[in-house]
Amino acid sequence: MSWAGPEDIYLSTSLASYLDRKLLVLLRDGRKLLGILRSFDQFANAVLEGACDRVIVGDSYCDIPLGLYVIRGENVVLIGELDVEKDELPPHMKQVSVKEIRRVSRCCGVFKIFSCCSSICELWKTIGEAIPILSKSG
Amino acid sequence: MTLGNSKPVVRRRNLLLTDSLPLSTFEHRDALHRTSLRFSPLERFNGLFIRLFFSYFKDLVGREVTVELKNDLAIRGTLHSVDQYLNIKLENTRVVDQDKYPHMLSVRNCFIRGSVVRYVQLPPDGVDIELLHDATRREARGLQSECMLDFEGRIVL
Question: Its domain of life (chain B) (predicted)?
Answer without folding.
Answer: Eukaryota
